[in-house]
Write a structure and sequence with these properties.
Elements (H helix, E strand, L loop, with lengths): L13 E6 L10 H18 L1 E8 L3 E8 L4 H22 L6 H14 L16 E2 L3 H17 L31
Antiparallel strand pairs: 1-3, 1-4, 2-3
Amino acid sequence: MSRNYKFQDQQKPYFISFATVYWIDVFTRTIYKDIFIDSVNYCIKEKGLIVYAWVLMTNHVHMIIGTKKENMQDILRDLKKHTSKTIINAIKENPQESRKEWMLWMFEKAGNKNGNNTHYQFWQQHNQPIELFDNKILDQKLNYLHYNPVKDGFVKEPEDYYYSSAVDYTGSKGLVDVVLIE
């Protein structure tokens, strides 16, 4: 297992980022975003994942996570593996997907370059885990994560972005069962 998948202290929260191969803008369609959200919620319920914050952009994800049971690297591995297979199948079966052949070709191209894959690769392999050992770093990563859609021009205020935990921090309920950072 790559050092990039290791989390040193399972008791601490971590900021992670991961992106699609070649930074392909997959998450422009609701069906693919919903697969990701459903998978995160499954990991919360069944695997003990704790999500403190998250944002799903068109081609990457930022999260602040912890764990109750399983190792974070195992949960993340399973999340990425499941979403990879499920989203690729959804792309294949989506008659409305105008970029189908191109995306599948790119995923296959990435998969062929990686000896760990048998066919397609959807996610880049690294997660860039950063241990959040104090409140200053935690606040910085929380703001960075929530302001990502603002910086990219999708919304004016973080809480207006639907695929993010920013709304949870305003007192409303979002798409993922988030544990708020106090």
